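quick one, 289 residues, struct below
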Amino acid sequence: MTDPPTEPTSAAPSGGFLPWADRSRPPGPGDLALPVTGAKLLTGVDGQPLRVADLPADTDWVPLGTLDGVPAWGTDLTTTVDGLPGRARGWASLAAEVPEPYATLAGRALAVLTWRRTHRWCGACRAELTDQPGETARRCPDCGLYVPMQLSAAVLVAITRPGPPGHADELLLVRHATGPTGLWALVAGFVEAGETLEAAVHREVGEEVGLPVDGLAYFGSQPWAISGPGVLLAGFTARAADPRAEPVVDGRELTSAQWFGLDALPAQLPPAYSISRWLIDATVTGARR
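---
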């Protein structure tokens, strides 16, 4: 990922990953290439990104951003990947192996290309949408409808309470009814229209485990390419308002919920590349200080 682009460009800032939608210059042969096929990405056999020169010359490229100053482009492979270099991989397996900036870029490729594929026609007058220059957005040439790429916000929260006398604080972990059901994870859910992130935390915790919380504090965020294109996770920490209260699962989204001592967490935790795991690890680290 350290090869320079074949053509210099002042529009490609350096340092990690930066989103970008500039079509003012065509892709260079050495630029990064992130082809998307369905819900998977085509990478090199070593998991590293392909280069524009690895794909056919007539490939239709979409600007994604820059990675360490190198422009990155995506394309939607509507045909088979047979005969193309590399291998198709899901985002989760890729994110588990590559550095975070590349994982974020790969997630953006999936989000942008999926959004373009599912937002081709105007929802008001049914004309074919056109790209909005310099933006990840489309516009209807007939009625003028502006269609930006939508983001779906979701929250997750690490809830703690004091442990028994002489023992470590405890963390609430849950098991979900769908997805990776064997993992012990955090309470999470999507934000509703007209709702703040903080209000969503209180509502989701109340709905899923029946607990009131206080001391809510923002932790950080992460784009998330597993739950669907355009998902943004916002993490929080909180304390149980009633330290003696026990969780009562909703029976629909969760199958179980349990308090664990911060010095005795289960092995089946979320993957290291997820904000859920970052929150759990930070909670454990903070308790040791």
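The longest strand covers residues 213-224.
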